[in-house]
């Protein structure tokens, strides 16, 4: 729907044209079996911490010393050839052999009976049925407790690693890509290697790379064992408590494990909606529906999103498919929005700009609060009425979506028209660079758009005239600078910035009356244009119109109370007014 470039879009279609693989590290067993004396390899539990993964419900606690290599399993071939090894085959921990009949988990040299098999932490036995994700995380937390501040406890029984705090960004980090609570995108080099049907730990080769790499490996090790349903439950808890960034990270982690589950994508859409990322939420809902076409909750959410985006036909379509999930009140709101948009279409056709502004406001208040095409309609109407300040405010109130995402949803032609209006507003208020960026994007999207080509030529001419005038003004060539600004005004007679700049030239040339006229014209277009007001106040002071000058200075003092220069000018104007009245 949104990917195709269509001839109509927005406002009822009448306004805008528009698996993890095997690891080679299994060879480590063969290399380790050549060690002549395993007893020499005993060491304390420090340095690199490893998280083990289990097979057949057996968990081997691996430990490594700061200056020793990790102790592997006893080579089975060697055991068979050694007479004493026939009675002591099993796991080896810290160089100690364990009798086969007592085979099970071994931690810090302690044997654990098979019937009590489970996670062992610091020599304490934990019942098997009490071990889950939270138990695994507790084990990690204990292992990393000494000498490290990179592991913090978070909500929903979750653990966040340094540099992996969901979508929360660190200060100064320019990376906009969201990071999950667990680094769920595992690499083969970080997974536990498989050998003889049994999982074993993989040692970090270079411990000097820093604690961030270690904690990332820990996080990846845990993520491969997390149940995506558990991640979803944790995300739901965060969502209910208003922690939308954390919830989003958990939903993304669940999707990475099971990308074909519609509910995960639908929940991610809800989190994105709560964060104001509506277009991304739409795309996630579409993915959910593609996986499960009759998923009513996803249709209901997609209907709500289309309502807010002003796509009333799409909203009604998805509400119908939502079945019992659809809210009759929401459907009534969509029909109300549709009614006001039809009024907008008619008002625009006949040039009734005031009525268009009113009907657009009704549509927005009825629920289309994130529809860029409706805010663009308002901005266009304000431009027609030469109310440039209100036009800019209308754009600022509306959403500022990414151009690519907006094109994907609305289509190339429609988004090109939205960008043309945005460029016109930017040009009118003197944001020349922004205007050039917007109109260039519009021309790329629709090279045959005549309005875009016209605005492009106008923007370039006005921006060039303003730049030339500024250079001449800095060189104190005020007459030539004035002529340059006038050249720009020939292309855009109601450009407030060019009017104000010409007023500055005229005041330097002693043409105070003409300067006041230019300032009046600029302030009519933009009442909050402080620079034009200040220049008018100064010119009126030069003309000894103290009352008019005082009126402008008082407004400026309220707007910029920290400006001592304006305060002094106000005091001087009041003194002159008293002297004038006393004469």
TrEMBL record:
A single Gene Ontology CC term: cytoplasm
Family matches, as SUPFAM superfamilies:
TPR-like (SSF48452)
At the top level, the lineage of the source is Eukaryota
Say yes or no: keyword Transport present.
no
TPR repeat locations = 228-261, 416-449
Keyword annotations for this protein, in alphabetical order, are: TPR repeat
SMART domains in the record:
TPR
Concerning Pfam families, the annotation shows: TPR_1, TPR_11
* Biased amino acid composition, Polar residues: 191-215
**Protein's recorded name:** DnaJ-like protein subfamily C member 7
| Organism from which the protein derives | Vigna unguiculata (Cowpea)
């Amino acid at each position: 729907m949104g990917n195709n470039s269509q001839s109509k879009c927005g406002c009822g279609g009448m306004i805008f044209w528009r698996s993890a693989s095997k690891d080679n590290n299994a060879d480590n067993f063969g290399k380790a079996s050549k060690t002549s004396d395993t007893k020499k390899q005993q060491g304390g539990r420090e340095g690199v911490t490893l998280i083990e993964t289990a097979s057949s419900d057996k968990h081997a606690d691996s430990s490594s010393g700061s200056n020793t290599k990790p102790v592997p399993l006893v080579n089975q071939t060697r055991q068979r050839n050694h007479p004493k090894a026939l009675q002591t085959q099993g796991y080896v921990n810290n160089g100690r052999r364990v009798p086969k009949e007592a085979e099970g988990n071994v931690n810090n040299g302690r044997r654990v009976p098979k019937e009590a098999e489970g996670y062992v932490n610091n020599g304490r036995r934990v019942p098997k049925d009490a071990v889950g994700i939270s138990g695994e995380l507790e084990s990690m937390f204990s292992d990393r407790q000494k000498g490290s501040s990179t592991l913090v406890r978070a909500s929903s029984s979750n653990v966040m690693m340094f540099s992996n705090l969901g979508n929360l960004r660190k200060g100064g980090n320019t990376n906009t890509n969201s990071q999950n609570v667990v680094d769920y995108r595992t690499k083969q080099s970080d997974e536990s290697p498989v050998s003889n049907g049994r999982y074993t730990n993989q040692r970090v080769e270079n411990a000097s790379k820093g604690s961030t790499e270690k904690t990332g490996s820990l996080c990846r090790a845990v993520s491969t064992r997390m149940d995506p349903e558990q991640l979803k439950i944790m995300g739901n808890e965060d969502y209910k408590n208003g922690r939308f960034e954390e919830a989003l990270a958990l939903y993304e982690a669940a999707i990475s494990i099971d990308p074909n589950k519609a509910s995960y994508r639908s929940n991610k859409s809800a989190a994105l909606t709560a964060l104001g990322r509506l277009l991304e939420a739409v795309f996630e809902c579409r993915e959910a529906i593609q996986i499960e076409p009759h998923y009513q909750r996803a249709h209901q959410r997609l209907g709500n999103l289309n309502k807010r985006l002003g796509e009333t036909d799409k909203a009604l379509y998805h509400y119908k498919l939502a079945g019992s999930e659809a809210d009759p009140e929401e459907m009534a709101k969509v029909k109300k929005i549709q009614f006001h948009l039809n009024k907008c279409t008619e008002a625009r056709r006949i040039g009734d700009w005031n009525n268009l502004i009113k009907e657009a406001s009704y549509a927005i208040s009825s629920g289309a609060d994130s529809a860029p095409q409706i805010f663009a309609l308002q901005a266009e109407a304000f431009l027609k009425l030469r109310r440039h300040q209100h036009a800019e405010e209308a754009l600022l109130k509306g959403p500022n979506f990414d151009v690519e995402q907006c094109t994907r949803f609305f289509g190339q032609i429609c988004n090109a028209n939205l960008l043309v209006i945005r460029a016109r507003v930017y040009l009118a208020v003197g944001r020349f660079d922004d205007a050039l960026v917007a109109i260039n994007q519009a021309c790329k999207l629709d090279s045959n758009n005549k309005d875009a080509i016209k605005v492009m030529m106008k923007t370039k001419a006005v921006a060039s005239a303003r730049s030339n005038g500024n250079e001449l003004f800095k060189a104190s060539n005020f007459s030539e600078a004035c002529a340059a600004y006038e050249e720009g005004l020939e292309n855009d007679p109601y450009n407030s910035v060019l009017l104000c700049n010409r007023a500055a030239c005229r005041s330097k040339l002693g043409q105070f009356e003409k300067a006041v006229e230019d300032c009046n014209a600029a302030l009519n277009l933009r009442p909050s244009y402080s620079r034009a007001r200040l220049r008018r106040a100064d010119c009126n002071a030069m003309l000894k119109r103290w009352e008019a000058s005082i009126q402008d200075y008082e407004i400026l003092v309220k707007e910029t109370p920290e400006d001592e220069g304006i305060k002094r000018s106000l005091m001087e104007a009041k003194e002159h007014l008293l002297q004038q009245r006393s004469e």
